[in-house]
Amino acid sequence: MAFPRFPEFKPLELSDRDTIRERLRSNPPLISELTFTNLFMWLDHYRFEWSLFQNWLMLLSRPAGGEPYFLQPVGPKPRRDAVCTALEWLRERENVSRPRIERADAEVLSEMEGTERIAFEAQREHFDYVYQAQDLIRLSGRKYHDRKNHVNRFIRKTQFAYVPFSSAHAGPCLDVIEKWCDQRECKKYPVLLAETNAVKRAIAHFDDLFIQGGVVLVEGRIEAFTLGEMLNADTAVIHAEKADPDIPGLFAVINQQFCEHQWAHVPFINREQDLGLAGLRRAKLSYNPVRFVEKHRITLESGRIPSI
Questions:
Q1: Is this model's pTM higher than 0.90 or not?
Q2: Can you tell me the distance from the alpha carbon of 148 to that of 138, in angstroms, rounded to the nearest whole number?
Q3: How many C-beta atoms lie closer than 10 Å to residue 257's C-beta?
Q4: Contacts of 70 (CB under 8 A, 6+ apart)
Q5: Residue 208 contacts residue 37 (beta carbons within 8 Å)
Q6: Which of 47, 103, 151, 268 is most buried by a 10 A CB count?
Q7: Residue partners of 180: CB distance under 8 A and separation at least 6
Q8: Which stretches in the chain have pLDDT values below 50?
Q9: What is residue 127's predicted lDDT score, i.e. its pLDDT?
Q10: Strand 160-164's sheet: what is its strand order?
Q11: CA 288/CA 291 separation, integer angstroms
């Protein structure tokens, strides 16, 4: 396979899976965006392209109706040269007025310290929530009292079963998404509609993506599902979690069951960001994250970066 070399780019495709994954495996990410699954499932929304610049993987987004931007370069540290090259390229070749890299983690920021004409801005709505896996499994202690009660009440009153996700579950899981989407009126909110379409794409390509999943059946019917994979050596990431909103406690159950059956051996669970949605932020905070993976926007101000 001929890899695209910067400044040439190619649109991300399923056939790029092994190449992208190998790069990510060699440089384990902290942020939830940097899995092939995440890039692929959000492809219709972010329209990712990729290229190789020296030893770095460059991930470019060309969102419909917006200016192009990069995610942080993937490759050996420090990544200052790759960051500066990307920003200058956006200005000179793409005529972007304020070139930017979105969702850069704290390590990249530290590598950019002292670089002139570079500005940083925290993106709180994109901070990843990280939990101890055993906390989500056991739900022990006062801080999980309410969640534990929801799970126990569901177990006492409901005939249910948890089984691993398979492609045979796709149809019923799509029905779960549609019901969730209708109740949340997600077609009125672009971010929720984009998320719904991304989850549908992940389900359609479940076998191709080599990810893990689980479903909860209530009286023999699939009413909840979740999808995830390993992000790095000690952290799993949850890409999707949907449940019938009319069944009390079901979201708490699918979360707890997936962690218990699939991720009991993993120290940490990354449950991604809250997208600035107040209800989602309350829900994620209620599970008591042990830390956040902070993300920032890196912007090139006017003028040229010295030495680049």
A1: yes
A2: 8
A3: 21
A4: 58, 59, 60, 61, 86, 87, 90, 100, 101, 102
A5: no
A6: 103
A7: 186, 196, 242, 243, 244, 245
A8: none
A9: 98
A10: 160-164, 212-218, 221-232, 235-243, 268-270, 128-132, 291-293
A11: 9
Kindly state the tokens that stand for 248.
């009390």
Compute φ and ψ for 53, nearest 5 degrees. -115, 110
Look up residue 31 and give its DSSP letter. S
Q: Tokens for 72? A: 């942080």
Write down the domain spans for the chain.
Answer: 10-127+294-300, 130-272
- Contacts of 197 by beta carbon, 8 Å cutoff, 6+ apart: 44, 45
Cα separation values, 147 from 40, 61, 226, 288, Å: 32, 38, 18, 11
CA within 13 Å, CB half, 113: 4
User: CB within 8 A of 92, min separation 6: which ones?
Assistant: none
Cα–Cα dist 5/255, whole Å: 41
Which of the following CATH numbers is that of domain 130-272: 3.40.630.30, 3.40.1190.20, 2.60.40.3090, 2.60.120.330?
3.40.630.30
- 130-272: same fold as 10-127+294-300? yes
Name the one residue in this structure whose structure tokens are 């540290």.
77
State the Cα–Cα distance between residues 308 and 89, nearest whole angstrom.
11
Identify whether the C-beta of residue 255 lies closer than 8 Å to the C-beta of residue 136: yes
* Tokens (6 digits) for 44: 């219709």
**């709505």: which residue's tokens?**
125
Q: What would the CATH number be for the domain defined by 10-127+294-300?
A: 3.40.630.30
pLDDT of residue 52: 97
81-90 burial, b at 16+ Cβ within 10 Å, e below that, comes to: ebbbbbbebb
